[in-house]
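ok so for the tutorial part 2 we go from a plain amino acid sequence to predicted C-alpha cells. step 1 is just haveing the sequence, like this:
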Amino acid sequence: MGGFPAFATMIRTHSLVASSLLAAPLLAQQFPEVEPNDVVSAAQVVALGSQVNCTLAAGEQDWFEFTTTTGGYYLLSLAGGATSSLDTQMELYDATGTNVLAFNDDGQSLLSSLFLKLSSGTYKLKVVGFSASTAGAYTLDVSDTSWKPPTGIELEPNDTVATANLVADGAQLGCEMNLPVSVLADTAGAANTTTVIQASTALTAGQYADGRHWLRFTSGANANEERRITANTAGDLTVDVVFPAAAAAGDAFEVLACDADVFRFDVTAPRALVGISVTEGSGSWVSGYSWEVLDSAGALVNSALYGTNAGDSGTFNARLTSYRVLPTGTWHARILRRKVALTGAPASGPANGNYHFELKVRDMNVGGVVAEAAEPNSTVATATPIAAGQQGQGNLTLSTGADASDLWGPITVSQQTLVCFQTDAGAAPAMSDTTVVLRQLLDPVAGTLSAGSSATSGNVLAGAGTSHARGTFNLLLPGTVYFLEVRSPGTTAATQAGNYVLEISLLDTPPYAAGNWATASANGTGCGTPGVPTISRVMGTSSTASFGELPIVGQTLVTRTTNLNGAGNLGLMLLGITGAQGINGALPGTPESVYSPLGLDLGFLGAPGCTSNVDPIVVQVLAGDASGTVDHVLPIPGNLFLAGFVMFMQPCKWDFATPVNALGIQPGNWARAIVGSRTF
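step 2 — the prediction. this is what the C-alpha cells look like for a chain of 680 residues:
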C-alpha cells in the first residue's frame, strides 16, 4: 500500500519512545483522597501527573492544591465512579483560593475538565456536585505539563472589521476579552418601558447597536442591572431582555462598550473547510462569550448557504468548535461578550479574561480534476484513484442498474487526520440528490470494506432543491486506508441518474486529539481454567472505582485487571504498539496489525488454544490482591508528540505452581488505547 512507508516511519519513530513509556515503573502516582479537604485552607496537595481517588458526599466541597514551577498547558479532568452519571462542577482559583480563574461544568459528559495555560505558581481547585444531592466516587487527574505553543497573540484594537487581526490556517492565538469601558453617563427621560429607555442626551442613531454595547443602571429600581443594546434612535435605547421595572425619570445609567475581537481570514481556494475553535486560554479565563461569522463587509453570513452564523457559548461548557465550507473570499469571526448573561454556578467564572482562538482552513479543489474510471468501478480493485484536495467527476445510473455506485480512493491516513468531503451537481444532466459513504479498508487482499459512515445531506452550497452530502470526520487511527462511495439516493426515496462532483479537502491534524479506549474479547474458551484475565477501565479501590478513564498526554492511565486467580495471584501485562499480527498474516508493525489485529496461536510455545493479541515490547509482572485484582498504573509523559500514539495491552494469568499448559501462561482479553491530548 502506498501509505505503508510513511506508516512504517511513524512506527519506528514511536518505537523510540515506546519502550521508555511502556516500561515506566509503576510509580505511586495514584493516591487516595485525604479528608478533611472541604475548605480551601485544608486543600489536599496533589503532584502534577498524578491521579487521586475521591468520594464526594452530598453538599460537600473537595479542595485540592497543585504547583507548577515552569508553567505550561495543563489538563484537569474528572472521571466518574461506578456509573457515568456523577454530575460535577470544577472551579480553578489562584493561590489565595479567592480569585476564580476558570470554571467548567460538563467538560466530559456530566463530568468536569479544564485545559488551559497557566503561569508558574500555586493553584487551588474546587470540586462540587451540580446539586446539593450529588454524591459518589470520582477520580481527579492533574496532568503533567504539555506544551502547545501559540502562533501569536491578539493585537488590539480589533473591535471592527476595519481593524480585524488577519489570521491564517493553523493560527493559535492567545486572546483577551478586556473589561468594559463606560462611554456614556446619562439619566432616563420620562417615557420609558422595561425594554426602551429614553435618553436625556442626544444620540446618533445606531451608534450603540453593534452588539457589543450594554446599558447598565446605576440608580433606581434597576440599579446594577445590565442589558445588551440592540437598537437606538436619536433619543431612545432598546435592549434585548426586559429590565425588572420600567425606569423612572432621572434614573442614572451608563452605556458600556464591551470588548469584541474580530479575526479576518481569506479563502483562496475555490472552496475550503473552515474550522473555528474557541477554548480555554490563560488564567483567568473568560467563562462565557458569543461568536459570529461575518462576510467581507462585516454582516452575518447567509446561514442557509454557510451554516450557523452566530451563537452563544454553552451554559455548561464554553468550548466551541464549528466547521463549515466557504467559497473564495474574505471572511471574519467575531468573539464578544455573551449576549445572554450566564446564570447559576457558571456565572461565578470570569466574564472577562483570556481565551484561545484557533483556525483551520483546509482547501478543496486545488489538486486538479479526476475523471471517473471506466465502469465498473465499485470495488477496491476497480476504484477510481483520487487524492486529498482533488475533485472527482462521475456519473451514476439508477441505483437498480449496473452503475449503482462509484468507489473513489484509496486515501491513506498516516496520522490522526481531519478530513471533509462533499458532493455537488455535475454537468447536465446533473444529479440533485446523493449519498457519500466513508468506508475503511479492512482486508487489502480480499478488498473487504467496512459498512462505513454515511452522509446523506449537508452541502448547503449545492443550492435550493438539492440534497448533496457533506461529511467531516476526525480519523483517529494511523495507518488506516479509506474509500469514498458515491451513490443515489440521498435523503429522498427516488433514485436518480446523472453527473456529480466529489470534493475532498486536504488532510490535516485535528485541532485536538481525544483519547480513545476499546477492548476486545479473546481466550474466552479453550485456553486454561475459568476466570479469564480481564482488563478494563474500571479501576481504583473497591470503594472508589472510576468510570471513563482515557489515555491522555501528561496524565496517569490506570486500568484494572481481574481474575488473576492462580497460585500467588500473579500475572503478566503485555504492552506493545501493534497487534501480534494482522489480517492475512500481516506482520507486526504493518498497518493491518494496528487497525485489524488478530491473535497469534501460542500452541507452538506450549499453550494450545491460547492467543497473544499483542506484539509485546515490554512485559510487566502483576501481583493481584486476595481476589486476583490489580490496578496497572501507567504515567504518560506530558509531550504532545505522543498524541495519536497507539498502545496495545493484554493481561495474562501466570501460574507456575499449577500451570494450565506447558507455557504456564493464560492470556485474557486485550485493549487498544490511542493517546489523546485531552479527554473531549
